[in-house]
Amino acid sequence: MAVRTSESAHQRRKIAALEEKLQAFEAGHATKQREANHFMSQGRAIRRIVTLYDSIEDLVSENDRRCETDNEDVTIDQDCLQMGYIALSNCISWLNDSASDLEHEDYLQMLKKLRQGADSARGDDTSKLKNLVPDWINREFMPNPPVDREDKNCRGFVHDACGRLLCPTELDWQNPVVKTGIRDRVDGYIVTEMSWPTFLYEKYTADQNDLEKGLFKSALLLQAFKAIFTSPSSAKDVDGDGEGANIIENNRRARRDISGRKVKTHVAQIIKMHKVTPRSIAYAACQLRFALSSVTSWCSIDGDFDYVQFWRNIVDFFERAPG
Questions:
Q1: Is the per-residue pLDDT at 31 higher than 60?
Q2: Do 224 and 284 meet the contact criterion of CB atoms below 8 Å apart?
């Protein structure tokens, strides 16, 4: 037997129930949004210190393949993927647990957000260096005409200063025959990723009898690295000697010693990168080369130059050193 209640009281209870459901829905949505933001934030490290081009899915798949087979015969590409997976695990230590705990759809959504964060960070760095690199070149080399901050079509081998820095070390950019041959892509002057470009070298000069001397020690590369991983303002403070092994620690100490006030956390701290790594050097070198080039949209191929292999060449220089 029902007890009759007033219509207004009945409506208030219905409204209260609906409001409770709405609050629960909004709370769930807020939680999902926080998770998405967290995954995107964590993903911003991937292109910078894990892999510039490989997908997260390919790294995970290669590790799964190795767990499921005893075959020790692997290709170079498979080995590169596995090294990338190890770097990914060190960078995002919780990834394995999340893969086990999440439902399949949630796992795919997590990978999507990690990927979005990774590509967004790469894009931010590309835009940053697009404007910074011309200023550095114009200040150091004082070219005439100066490098345009906005128009990338005027960079690359079209511009004398950019061309000199992009030129392979075994060629003399000052030789008119070489300069013309590179610009016209003549046989014998094709620029590929198999030659170290001049911008990687200390004082932008390579010793042809010892090509490792001064390699990865240029002031321009150091500036690019600091602009990406510490701050654009810190990139102004380089002495040109190319010794960058401790720039993360040096920047931390400088910020601490200047004052006791809290300062903005830089990228290296956010992504928990405590030292310079081969993959972070390769990332900075690719970003710098792109900033020097005349290509306007990020890509993996620039004419005869393959950025994917260039990135791998730098990583292998350190991670697969002979002996």
A1: yes
A2: yes
269 is written with which tokens? 């701290």
Instruction: Convert the pLDDT of each residue in 10-22 to its tens digit.
Output: 677 777 777 777 6
Please give the radius of gyration of the chain, using alpha carbons only, rounded to the nearest integer.
Answer: 25
The amino acid sitting at 232 is P
Convert the pLDDT of each residue in 170-180 to its tens digit: 999 999 999 99
What was the pLDDT predicted at 241?
A: 40
Q: Which residues of 49-70 are buried (b: 16+ CB within 10 A; e: fewer)?
A: bbbbebebebbbebbeebeeee
Q: Count the Cβ atoms, other than its own, within 10 Å of residue 125.
A: 24
CA distance 27 to 36: 14
Split at pLDDT 50, 70, 90, the class of 234 is: confident
Give the residue among 5, 84, 91 at the shortest CA–CA distance from 52.
84
Q: How many Cβ atoms are within 10 Å of 92's Cβ, its own excluded?
A: 20
Whether the ω angle into residue 145 lies within 30 degrees of 0, i.e. cis, is: yes
Give the residue ranges of DSSP H helices in the chain: 7-43, 46-49, 56-68, 76-91, 95-101, 104-141, 160-166, 176-184, 219-229, 247-258, 267-270, 278-292, 307-319
Residue 249: the pLDDT is 57
CA–CA distance, 84 with 71 (Å, rounded to integer): 19
